[in-house]
Design a protein that fits this description.
The chain has 120 residues and is mostly helical. It has a domain of 44 residues. It is 76% helix and 0% strand. It has four helices and no strands. This is HMG box domain-containing protein. Keywords: DNA-binding, Nucleus.
Amino acid sequence: MVRVKFVATNKNDSSTPGTSQLKLISKKPLPPKGAYKYWYDEHYKENFQHAQMIRKTKDNWDAYFAKRCQHLYERLKPEEKAKYKKLAEDDMARFLKEHAAFQKEQEQKEQDITNTEKNE
């Protein structure tokens, strides 16, 4: 077995953490204090929730996706664009049918639950 010793030119530059660093890493982060706590509560908390909400909204996702795929869409020929548009429309129609069926099932389950509660 060959042993390799890691030599760093600068102690802070070493990519392998020492034991003291490992102890620091393993500790749970403390709650923020003082001015930093004020900044965290005022800005970061609500902005973080806002960012999560934005990620969840479909419109922003569609806009992001359109921006990312714009260069690919521009390369397509007109007949390819028409083909993909037709595929997308078919896919949307299928999704709407499935969604309507799913909603009917949910309503049926709710009615069954209310009927059993009334009978009891």
